[in-house]
Amino acid sequence: MLDLKTIRGSLVAAALGAACGPLLAPLVLPAWSQNKPASGISIDNFTFSPGKLTVKAGTTVTWTNKDDIPHGIASADNAFNRSKALDTDDAFSFTFTTPGTYQYFCYIHPHMMGTIVVEAATGENAMP
Amino acid sequence: MSASDRDDGSLSRRKILECMTWVGTGILWSVAGGVPRSLGIIDEAVAKEAGGLKFLQISDSHIGFDFKTPYPNAVGTLSECVGKIKALPTKPAFMIHTGDISHLSLAAQFDDADKVIGETRLDVHYVPGEHDFVDADRKLFLERYGRGSKGAGWYSFDAGGVHFIGLVNVYDLKAGGLGNLGHEQLEWLEADVKGRSASTPIVLFAHVPLWTVYPNWGWGTDDGAQALSYLKRFGSVTVLNGHIHQVMQKVEGNVTFHTARSTAFPQPAPGSAPSPGPMKVPAEKLRSMLGIANVTYQQNQERLAIIDTPLQA
Q1: Is residue B6 part of a domain?
Q2: Do the chains contact at A68 and B67, CB–CB below 8 Å?
Q3: Cα dihedral angle (B287, B170, B163, B298), rounded to 10 degrees?
Q4: What's the CATH number where B73 sits?
Q5: Residue B276 in contact with partner chain A when CB distance is under 8 A
Q6: Tell me: the pLDDT tens digits for A10-33?
């Protein structure tokens, strides 16, 4: 007899995979960094998604512009230097090493805002 | 004092909604591609009369924008606008460009724009759009167009009895905010108009609308009302903006607000699309949504006559 719960679980997993795939696709990491944690934010229709991203310290976050208008990433409190203007399909990455809450916005369209929460790293990703 | 007429010049929600209704009417005209007429501010007959100061406004050239169909190229449509300008029966005194000359603030993009616009052989007064300040040092615009200006590029000048003021509301944008003039520029503006006769017609121009068009898309200026408060005593104030790539007008007391079409691509009416990204319209319709604005000031007339001319009616 089929286990409906398992099937439903696989479908959800497949759907999540499909949803996350495009976010991670632009990340081409060199072999030596394969173990470093990475996460992606997509810019689509003048919106950052996810709007709030939670990562472990040491994670490299990459923003990719899927709009046909340029956007630019800037920290609301100068926690990192602003990106260059990102034209369609351009990406910008920053590695968050210090736990905390980071607000950022598009410096071309400042009504676009997002948040990154950086949690202390645990286990194998913990800083020495 | 009514709720819609506050002393601080800010707009009540009711007033904004009234304006939005009105704005909706403007959009219909824009889509029709004809000469808009409203509340008597835009009157072709007035503009056709001989005499008076005539100047042009172009906006949002976005040189470097190259997004496949339906946009052939931004240089091409700018060239077509320049062709319209060269064919005008009366040569305008000068031209203003209300920003987003370039798409990405690259030297080559400014070069291309200068080359095409230069063919008009008109003096051009520029204010920057947010796309003109995306180079790392935010210096290319000011090096090219900012000579003699203050701060991030603001200035004023007189022509034909009119006092023109170019403002910059795209320089140091704040997270979550709209367009922004900033304290230093506001102080300069207050001093610039102080002591001028209230009968001097004022033309204020800046990239992002100085009035609140649609804050959800960032279409407004946080301290725009503060700037306009310095101009309350003047009998005729005209505010010319770009940024939203469509024609909109509003009249409030002695102040006439007007936005110009882009020379590159149209943007959707407020709230009519998921985002303010470029509208994808059929190629045969595109040129009815791009164009220039022709402005005439005649002495003893309170309002300037503004004619928006699409590339193709």
Answers
A1: no
A2: yes
A3: 20
A4: 3.60.21.10
A5: yes
A6: 444 444 444 444 444 445 555 445
